[in-house]
């Protein structure tokens, strides 16, 4: 089966870009307080340029009480002093652009912080006020209104409603928060909300950013009547946006048309295209495709590849659906294997979840080559290029994830993929912080991080880092990354193989046993030792077709 996307011209940078996700507080600390900052990101730009990425996506650095590490925003048009200031941000953008690196910001429109000026005003003014109309305030049910307005549960555990104390000291209305009580959901049916965020976009676009990653892009609108859900715990159980009364409402598409028009306005001024990429979690690739229609988001993360088990048939299914439904809109698929919310691939693909297992590392390397070979764009999460496993044994007392605070369960916590990066040396803080001896990163780094430190990775040509760097260099020499076709090749069970329109052949052996290679001759690049004519188990390789490949 052959999959192709419409031919579009001229080339648009985002269609085949590789973007590096910078989790700012864990990237590099320049001040010695144990928390990464914008100056640290600026220091790391030459490293990222050497790796070969096209741009960076910065996690939220806005003023925030940090109940959800910046995804509870108190001011959308400022920099939290822990990360720097607007001057430092300007220097970061200027340095990135001098290196040819794009800069994307993380924007959080579904909810804000309970310390945002709007929410403080809402608490102070009472029921029926214009300030409360910016959020979802409602009267409770039952005697005295002591039962929440509906039965929804928050994604991070517990009820999705919190009751407030009114200005006169009496128990009052309830407000909706689909994540934590410190993150009240904004009411997007109120025109003030849309106008506010349009101003926010323009504020940062005027400061030179190249686009935005949009948090919870399938959110924003709720059913206008806020009825009970037949499965109120579905979001918390799956930790995904599956409640159709709260997510993926049809009204959201008009917001993305408005935001796209703002970006196109700036693009028209100087010819520098601005990008909107959404965090879109919806049930099917076909629904996903609705977000990337020509007048909406440019791209949306395709999480089905990240969620697929290590199985050739499962990977083929999700790739085929993406190429058919998403690429068919005129967009390109945005592939991702890791991010700040998910267990890292080295651990996820390992046996019994063992951190750093040899099998998990081999599979993670193979998956990386597969992702980089697929037509479209790709996002890399910091540390992925170092082969970092998940840190699975952080003590309870250091955990900061609100999921743990609200549920007491370690099953879905995200701290393990957010531990600060190791840059150099043999002991913590591994060059992450420039503070005095004894300075501690905000999350503890295990001793085995030394095996994955950047200085060691750069010196070892067999490292994850060199695999990523070599893969990115080869991508640049391929003419059809964004617009390429994909044709599946016949292969033995457990093997996934395809050829692209530009002649690149990629094969991945998901099984443990070696199989004959689909192309004669030595591969251009492989995720592990790959003798000519053989594709070992848990290995991926690239070739250029000799013209005889079917």
TrEMBL record:
Entry annotated with the keyword Hydrolase: yes
Record-linked SMART domains: Aamy (SM00642)
Domain Glycosyl hydrolase family 13 catalytic: 21-414
The keyword Hydrolase appears for this protein: yes
GO molecular function: hydrolase activity
Residues passing through the membrane, by range: none
Keywords assigned: Hydrolase
InterPro entries named in the record: GH, GH13_cat_dom, O16G_dom_2
Pfam families linked: Alpha-amylase
Family: Belongs to the glycosyl hydrolase 13 family.
Name of the protein in its database record: Glycoside hydrolase family 13 protein
Organism: Streptomyces formicae
